[in-house]
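Please produce the structure of this protein holding adenosine-5'-triphosphate.
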Amino acid sequence: MIDIKNLHKSFGNDEILKGVNLQVNKGETTVIIGPSGSGKTTLLRCINLLETPSEGTISVGTSKLTFDKDNKPSKKEVITLRKKTGMVFQGFYLFPHMTVIENIIEGLVIVLKRPKNEAREKGLKLLEKVGLIEKCDDYPYQLSGGQQQRVAIARAMAMEPDVLLFDEPTSALDPEIEGEVLKVMKNLSHEGMTMVIVTHKMSFARNTAHKVIFLDHGLIVEEGSPKQIFEETENQRIKQFLSLFND
Ligand SMILES: Nc1ncnc2c1ncn2[C@@H]1O[C@H](COP(=O)(O)OP(=O)(O)OP(=O)(O)O)[C@@H](O)[C@H]1O
Ligand SMILES: [Mg+2]
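Below is the modeled complex.
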């Protein structure tokens, strides 16, 4: 589904990603962990081209783009690839002046040009999936953070992406309500949604991920099943990092 080869990203003279190779299989949940500043967000933003890689190849589904000094893909190619991914951010970024259902169907109607009633029907199904059908006509300010994040997930899914990307989706939430968001993500994982998730929720990674990736200083140090990373790794850096978490 996703195939990343030799991905480099520099900001000025700082090389943040130093040659990342990553495969994400269809239907699998990949969790990226690693210390602050290791490049997790930058990697996600490169996958959906919110950042332009300095070098490397990114394939999502049938779209493949190559980046180097002399090779910048066209705007059209970038948009085609970006449409295959849906992003869920730490802050939910819902439109404050639109109701929940309007937020969800905005992209469907404006970008994908779907008829409004068809979009609404689809939006309602997605709201049901994230357990918020009764909030359909509320405004974001009337919702808790956890509810807003679930709306943001429904909004990302409405665009029918091949893969959903999550950047610390629960870190702005109280521990009491982050569980409801993690539950929705877990259900999506079980339904076979392809997902790449940056999180510090190690219990989620342990229980839900098919593959765990440890990123440090812009490189993948180790990748493997949750068992391989959480129980069997011999890598001191990973052991030390994991010892900071007790969930
Ligand atoms: N737009 C930018 N311009 C310059 N430097 C940037 C930019 N975005 C990120 N960086 C730098 O890249 C490095 C990696 O940042 P990134 O946000 O990818 O880390 P992270 O692993 O997501 O960290 P955290 O766990 O704190 O979210 C940091 O040193 C950061 O300062
Ligand atoms: Mg980050």
